[in-house]
Amino acid sequence: MYKLLLISKYLRRKLAPLFAALAVTICTAMVIIVASVMGGFLDLMQTTAKQLTPDVVIKSSLTGFGDYEKLIDQLEALPEVALATPAIEYPATVTIGGFTDPVQVIGMSPSRYNQIVPYSETLMWSADDLFDEEPIEMTEATRRGLRKGYDLKEAGRTLTTPSGYERYGMAAGGPAAVVGIAANRYQSRLSDGSYAFHRSIANVPLTVPNKLNPIKLALPVFAPNGEPIDAVQLRIPAVNEFKTGYYEIDKAVIFVPFDWLQKSLKMQRFEEYTDFDELTGEGGEAVIQPARCTDVYVKAAEGVDALTLKAAVQPVVDAHQTDRYIGVMTWEDVHGTLLGAVKNEKGMVTFLFVIISIVAIIMVATTFYMIVLEKTRDIGVLRAIGAPATGVLTLFMTYGLAIGLIGAGLGVWLAWFTVTNLNNLQEALATKLATLIATVVLAGLVALLSAIAMAYINRRRDFTIGAGVLVFLGTFGGLMAITFYAFPVIQLPGFAGETGLDSKIGWRMWDPQLYFFEKIPDQVNWGEVFLIWVGAVVSCVLGAIIPAVIASRLNPVEALRYE
Amino acid sequence: MTSTKPIIQARGLKRSFHEAGRELHVLRGVDLSLNRGEWLSILGRSGSGKSTLLHLLGGLDRPTRGTVVFDDTDIFTLRGAKLDRYRNRHAGFVFQFYHLLPELSALENVLIGSMLGRDSLSRSITGLVTAGLIDLLEWLSRRKEAQKTAIEMLDRVGLGDRLTHRPAKLSGGERQRVAIARALVNRPSVLLADEPTGNLDADTASSILDLFRSLHNDGQTIAMVTHDQTVADAGDRVVTLVKGKLTAD
Ligand SMILES: Nc1ncnc2c1ncn2[C@@H]1O[C@H](COP(=O)(O)OP(=O)(O)O)[C@@H](O)[C@H]1O
Ligand SMILES: [Mg+2]
Q1: Which residues in chain B have Cβ-Cβ distances shorter than 8 Å to A1?
Q2: For residue B149, what is the domain's CATH number?
Q3: Stated pTM of the model
């Protein structure tokens, strides 16, 4: 019992252990914040990357491979496979208005592709957008007329041209393209990270004059034997934009109908004559070149994971190998480099913070060692009045445990508070700087006043610096917590129309115009948090062990003589 | 009051220290009997080994040779925890420099002795936890009573109105009174006082001696060491420590 009494007194009367607890708080919070944000980032990347990438992709070279229909039949006979569809993934340049950029054109059959990935969910614009944005210069009547025949969603979903493009020589019902939102250079994010319809390609045919639509594609063409034979220029109306949130995809992918692309690249089935006499044209024989594709997309059956699917698909593909190699990749393989990089980064940063935390352990150990030195005579006294050596040992271990519980507990709170408010915080810094500073100063003043008031009320009792610091921190933290939740709606009188670091120096912690995602990941993984918390508490106890052992080994007489 | 049965008996106590490669023989064979209810003064010059002797009597230190018999057992044959218990229950230490715990109030300083009473003996972690819980329950069940005793003790030493003062806010004499109350809280068989007045002015010193006298009159056995003949004379019997041995006056 005397241990609890002493620890509660030490906690209230000693500043050094409070600093040790603070170090633990900050280390715990840092590790949790980094793990949460990086982990959230990784999760987001994985989900967004997964959005338009099939479970398994069978891929060959640009020349493609034939007889894919047979391969698909064999694949779909496998119990692990739900669905397979051919696709052509092809490098190209796209010219939109005055800008020409490299892109990847993906030819796919929308109805099947939609069953493999949630493609239509990534489409940005629907007919409703026609009415939401003012900058479109047209009469109400035109809009209503358009709305009837111009279903943007449906056009994007089926990759067919709606009416409205006739004046550019594009017949309604013909092939159409869907462009990644970041591939259109006329489109750019607003400062809050969203996009405007009036800058979209889908809006363009409705406004006159039109510079952007139809878009122009240039692609190389290869003979079945891999020889480059031609380059084609294609014009195709873009009818919608898609957005996964994964910048690498949104910047560089354009969807077009599979059949149209296959035909344009001369990859459809055709007959040719070989070995005929070039002078007379006599003899020779007809060779049938099968239709080709570059990729086959495979969707896993219910409950089958990508790796299992890959293993099942591999032998079927191997039996189909031509002289050009056909590879099998899971969606993670496809995005391996980037996902791997983020994973590495998360690992690295967490590792760095673990090292910092080891410094914190050493700090706890040092603090405790100093406390033991300072308390040497008290330890002698305790021994003299009958405390056993194990009692002294557990006294300091429990002290370490208490510091750990307090420090790590506060750290978890701080981390949770910071992570869930990261977006508010950056918004406040970027756009409401004056309000933020005013709130912090105000909360600080209130906290200071309440600490002073508490000290005054308790002046006859035992009010210590530790208690004062706790009252201050508690009040300040509480007030800041409340203000942060309320921050988006807070408008202090006199601060209307204020600006922040964004307009002052162009600073944003997380620039939604630049980054893949509009929001900073703001979820904590409680499983991870628990592990980190346990780690922090255990570290504190570990830090206290050596000093505690030293204390318990002290010779009581020498401890009493200690000056 | 003085009975003839010795409460503590030391025989052939030797204690030497290794210091800078040399053997320093501080106690060279001390024989001593302390009778129940007796107030024994041990007189000696500074450095003569008085504190060393008192630490041995209180089981705080171990002799190089010799025995201290309490209640028919040599206390140095006791294993760690039992020796701790001996210090807690049967020996009450009072030091020249008071040695109060600065974070605790006067009352808590006294109470801590009775809190220590039944500390866990377990060494395993789960053992420690359950023992800790048992300690807690056991303490809760006797807290009231222990508190009452502690307050009585502080009353007894004349500090009934200073319960919540911390040591820093007490005078030297008052601190020593708290230390005496702490030493007495478990009603020890013997009060071991190491120059209890050594750090106090003459008036305060004599009031502490008055307190000792009144405790003695109530039957408390006291062994007190001092370098001061007049202080020593306050006891029933004075022995002198010279060259590591005791001589009766
Ligand atoms: N741990 C120790 N190591 C070496 N010498 C010691 C130790 N403790 C005490 N001494 C020596 O023993 C002698 C007696 O010490 P002490 O018992 O404190 O004397 P007193 O209390 O009579 O003044 C002194 O000379 C002191 O230096
Ligand atoms: Mg001494």
Answers
A1: 115, 135-136, 139
A2: 3.40.50.300
A3: 0.72
